[in-house]
Structure formats: C-alpha cells, structure tokens
C-alpha cells in the first residue's frame, strides 16, 4: 500500500502552479491529511525566469498556486529558497557543463531542494511529509520499509528524476498521482471538476531558470566565449566552436561543420574535452557504449549486496535497457547487455528491479563498444 492510505498526516504540499501539483494537493486533502500548500520562490528576480506558464518558478506560477490552494481550502505560503537553488542547482548546472558533462537540473532540484532544503524545513516545523505532483509510487512493505516504484502509468512515470531519494526522504514523501492509471487529459478533467483554474495550463518542459530556452546562450553569458577546434576521430580539425560547453554527447544539429564526412553521413558529438577545448565528432556507430562507471551512488533503501542484473534508465524520458551492475571500490560498474548510444558523463543512471527503483549514480566515464573513452 502507498503512503496516502496511512494515518492522517501533517502534509506540506509543494505547489508549483501547475495542474499536477494542484491535483496532488487536492487528493492529499481529500484523503484526510492536514495539508498546507507552499510555493517555492527559486529566483531572486522571478521576472528573469520563464513567463507564459512554461516554467514552475514565475510570479504567475505563484499566483496560480495560491488560487489553487484557496479552491482546495488549505493554507498557503511562499517560501524563498532562491539562494539555495542558485548554489545547488544553477551553479552546479554551469559548473557541470564547463567540465564537459551533461547535468540534469530537475533531478538535482529534487535531491537538493524539494527533498532536502524543503523537507528539512518541513520536518523542523512539525510536518510529517512533503507532497508533490510527481508520477511515482512509494510502497510500504509489511515490515514498514518503503520502496520507490514506477508510476502505474508508464507513459507518465517520473521515477527517474526521483532516483536520488534515500530511505529517509522516502519515509517523508507522498506522491498522490502515482498509483492511478489516468491520462493527463483525465487529470486535467479532474482539476476542472475540482474548480482548479490550472486545469488547462500548459505543462512545463524546459529548464525553468533559462528564460528563453537557449541553453547555449545562457552558458555563454556566464562562461564567456572560448573558441576551440572541432575535430574528427583522427584528430584533424574540421571546424571551430565558441565554447565546448555548448555541446552534448550525441548532438547532431548545430555543429556548423563546413567539411562533409567522407561517407556523406551525419556526424555526432563523441567527446567534449574542456582541457584542450576541443569537440570530437564522428559517425553514429562510434556513440555505442558497452559499459560505464558511475559515482556518488544514492540508494532508495538498502544498498545492493554484490553484483546483480537490473534494467537501467539513462534519461528522464528514455527507455529501459538490461544491465549488470556492481559496486567496486566505491564506484558503480555497469555493463550493458546490448550497446546503447549517446551516454554522457554527468547524466544519471537509475537502476530498476522490475518497477522498484534501486538507486542512482552519476555517470563518470564510458567505454565505447569499439574503444575506451
């Protein structure tokens, strides 16, 4: 059974201003919990964040959240976590790209903000749990231990970005949307039945702190231009760039290479080297990865003992792939049953045992199917 069927709790509902978090708060209140809504102010200058209902951190989002709380009939507050967000999410994002890695800021926000800074403050104020609109399930076993599982509806599952939560955080997490097999249209219809004005509000997809959606421009404004070479696998220079941080492994578009490949086929980013400021490109086949090592593991419960066979997810909206994994000298060593493409250092790998989330780690190095990287 899930947490929402447990005794009535004092619940702090994180309300982003979107339809999912509003319905989650409403369901928690309807289940008999004592719910208080809170909107997180994550920018010292909210006008610099996305407008037009595309993010989750704007002034208009705060107003939408407040209106939803009024309709639900729960107290509502705005908490300023802008400085913590800047340090733990925005600055981390910039530093990771500068180092040639590809971070996931939403995953970092869940780890550092919603289920660390917010949860710690909630517990200090006497709340029992934090409630969000994520599509995932916390299942309580007969012995009282908790497990994080995929949502009932795989099409909306968001367990990947929650794979950083540890046992303590799961103990205080509520995901009221995770155990219902409903389409997003049905969630919107429920919001409309409840009188929530956010029923038709568009979903947010992009990075909330990049106002115009231009990640490369955002990074350039903070890191400055740094011209360097684009090279092929032989090391020959075939183009130039204005900052290696503006590329990601597997990228095909926007390479601005004047010289076509000998075989006439598209080229992809294979490697990013901040040390010599070069970007290496090559054919799609060279993206195939057979193994990887990952660091900073976080387990959703007890850590695995010894090697095991799992499925793994490498992107928030990616599919599953079969792997074998083991902890060796503090690192997670993963081998893929079949090669996968476009695996980038800095990304998170999340391991699953069936629908259960075992844990996650940050990819440090990869081994290509044809050569070591």
Low-confidence stretches: 1-5, 48-55
Number of helices: 7
Work out the strand percent: 25-35%
Order of helices and strands: EHEHEHHEEEHEHHEEEEEEEEEE
Tell me the number of structural domains: 3
State the CATH topology of the largest domain.
Rossmann fold
- Mean pLDDT figure: 89
Query: How large, in whole angstroms, is the Cα Rg?
Result: 22 Å
> Main sheet, how many strands, which sense, barrel?
6 strands, antiparallel, barrel
CATH architecture assignment of the largest domain: 3-Layer(aba) Sandwich
Gross morphology is globular
The top level CATH class name of the largest domain = Alpha Beta
Distance between the termini: 44 Å
The level of helicity is 10-25%
Strand order of the largest sheet: 12-15-14-13-16-17
Q: Could you say which structural class the secondary elements and strand pairing correspond to?
A: alpha/beta
- CATH homologous superfamily (4th level) name of the largest domain: HUPs
Domain tRNA-specific 2-thiouridylase MnmA-like central: 217-282
Site (Interaction with tRNA): 134, 347
Function: Catalyzes the 2-thiolation of uridine at the wobble position (U34) of tRNA, leading to the formation of s(2)U34.
Keywords: ATP-binding, Cytoplasm, Disulfide bond, Nucleotide-binding, RNA-binding, Transferase, tRNA processing, tRNA-binding
List strands and helices in order, with pairings.
Layout: E1 10-14, H1 19-30, E2 34-41, H2 59-72, E3 76-80, H3 82-98, H4 105-124, E4 129-131, E5 136-140, E6 146-150, H5 167-171, E7 173-174, H6 184-193, H7 215-223, E8 228-231, E9 237-241, E10 268-273, E11 278-282, E12 289-299, E13 308-313, E14 320-328, E15 331-340, E16 348-353, E17 356-368
Parallel strand pairs: 1-2, 1-4, 2-3, 4-7, 8-11
Antiparallel strand pairs: 5-6, 8-9, 10-11, 12-15, 12-17, 13-14, 13-16, 14-15, 16-17
Helix pairs in contact: 1-2, 1-6, 3-4
Active site: 109, 208
GO molecular function, one term: tRNA-uridine 2-sulfurtransferase activity
Pfam families: tRNA_Me_trans, tRNA_Me_trans_C, tRNA_Me_trans_M
């Amino acid at each position: 059974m899930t947490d929402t069927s447990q005794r009535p709790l004092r619940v702090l509902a994180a309300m982003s201003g979107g339809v999912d978090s509003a319905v989650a708060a409403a369901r928690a209140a309807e289940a008999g919990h004592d719910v208080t809504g809170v909107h997180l102010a994550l920018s010292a200058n909210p006008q610099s964040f996305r407008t037009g209902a595309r993010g989750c951190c704007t002034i208009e989002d705060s107003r939408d959240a407040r209106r939803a709380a009024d309709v639900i009939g729960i107290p509502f507050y705005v908490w300023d976590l802008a400085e913590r967000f800047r340090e733990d999410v925005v600055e981390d994002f910039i530093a990771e790209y500068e180092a040639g890695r590809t971070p996931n800021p939403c995953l970092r926000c869940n780890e550092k903000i919603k289920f660390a800074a917010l949860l710690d403050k909630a517990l200090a104020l006497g709340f029992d749990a934090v409630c969000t609109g994520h599509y995932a399930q916390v299942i309580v076993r007969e012995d009282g231990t908790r497990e994080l599982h995929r949502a009932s509806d795989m099409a909306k599952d968001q367990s990947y970005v929650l794979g950083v939560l540890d046992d303590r955080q799961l103990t205080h997490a509520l995901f009221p949307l995770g155990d219902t097999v409903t389409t997003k249209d049905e969630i919107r219809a429920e919001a409309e039945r409840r009188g929530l004005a956010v029923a038709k509000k568009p979903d947010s997809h992009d990075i909330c702190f990049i106002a115009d959606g231009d990640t490369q421009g955002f990074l350039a404004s903070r890191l400055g231009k740094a011209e360097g070479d684009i090279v092929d696998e032989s090391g020959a220079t075939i183009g130039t760039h204005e900052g290696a941080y503006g590329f990601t492994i597997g990228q095909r578009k926007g390479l601005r290479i004047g010289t076509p490949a000998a075989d006439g086929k598209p080229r992809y980013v294979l490697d990013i080297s901040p040390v010599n400021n070069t970007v290496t490109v090559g054919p799609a086949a060279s993206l195939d990865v057979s193994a990887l090592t990952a660091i900073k593991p976080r387990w959703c419960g007890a850590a695995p003992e010894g090697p095991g066979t799992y499925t793994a997810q490498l992107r928030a909206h990616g599919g599953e792939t079969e792997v074998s994994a083991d902890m060796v000298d503090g690192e997670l060593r993963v081998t893929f049953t079949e090669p996968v493409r476009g695996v980038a250092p800095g990304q998170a790998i999340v391991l699953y045992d069936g629908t259960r989330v075992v844990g996650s780690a940050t990819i440090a190095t990869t081994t290509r199917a044809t050569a070591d990287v």
